[in-house]
Task: structure prediction
Amino acid sequence: AQKVTQAQTEISVVEKEDVTLDCVYETRDTTYYLFWYKQPPSGELVFLIRRNSFDEQNEISGRYSWNFQKSTSSFNFTITASQVVDSAVYFCALSEETDSWGKLQFGAGTQVVVTP
Amino acid sequence: NAGVTQTPKFQVLKTGQSMTLQCAQDMNHEYMSWYRQDPGMGLRLIHYSVGAGITDQGEVPNGYNVSRSTTEDFPLRLLSAAPSQTSVYFCASSSDKFWDEQYFGPGTRLTVT
Result:
């Protein structure tokens, strides 16, 4: 069963609009980590952020912000004032303590298209 | 440091051919893994290794073999390629902490005709 769900397949925005990517996860572990990775058109996977299950403090880093809510099992990601360079596929991933050595379980990804 | 390197970048095989995708890392990471990426499915774990001499199956291991004779190298072998194995393959490494970020190689785009 899919443990990480990214329901949005593609989001298209015009430059300077905000875009929020949804991620819903499923786990029985009390200790787990959530990740966001970015895959630009060049194809490499770029690590963006890691959050552990005990830290629900939301974070802002430049134009990026993350909203982690255990009550709804969600770890959403927002790009403020989007730019063309933000065009990429964004993956949410889960690592569970009981699942041995950090096996990442990825969502299907959300394609973000930012047009000028 | 080169990080995680993969060769080749592109490969075209005919059905039934065999080949090995190479992966190496220079970060002295214990944990290495192989993922395949298919449209609409994210990345799925093929095989992983928690150290030299230790490997295990991931979510989609059929048709692939691995071995880990050194900490640095983790090759992925396709014994008899099938069109269903057309995909982009990523190798990754991380420390032995489940919370550590994984460092990914640049990927190998494989087409099986």
About this structure: Residues 65 and 77 of chain B are 5 Å apart (CA to CA). Chain B touches chain A through 28 residues (CB under 8 Å). Chain B has no helices and eleven strands. The radius of gyration of chain B is 13 Å.
